[in-house]
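Amino Acid Chain and Its Fold in Token Form
===========================================
Structure side: the spatial fold of the chain, written down as a series of whole-number tokens.
Position: the record begins directly beneath this header, with no further notes in between.
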Amino acid sequence: MPESKAVREKARLSVEKSSSATATVFTAEERAAMADRARELKSAGRRRPGSADRDGERDVLAKIAEMPAKDRDMAERLHSIVKTCAPNLSARTWYGMPAYSRDGDVVCFFQAAQKFNARYATFGFSDQANLDNGSMWPTAFALKELTAAEEAVIASLVKKAASQ
């Protein structure tokens, strides 16, 4: 029996060490984003066939509504741009943030500044976006504000990214 107790204690210490190592490797915000993603995957598995687009749109609008005013304003405007310029993309959440996908693969996404306590929001594109331009091109943009000029650039990039 003493051997068994020692083995259990060693296992307990190993788990505690592993848990504290994870806590120092990832920030609280990163752990929250991973938890959001796990919930999204679990929820997607429970959805009825054919309801993904409707549910995804609802989820995105709910996440946008939760954002602080500045991020919410940008997210609402970006959502409108994506829905207008790329109606073939489906809204969904991705790590707890608004994203837009084609055939289940994320093409572009918005990350609120508040998500990771950053000084700017991010609008980015995944490798599924058709933005290839030579051997190097930008895939994410920092947004401190969203003017008509930025909206025009983003609209153009979204159209190109969503093309097939």
Notes: The chain has one domain: 2-162.
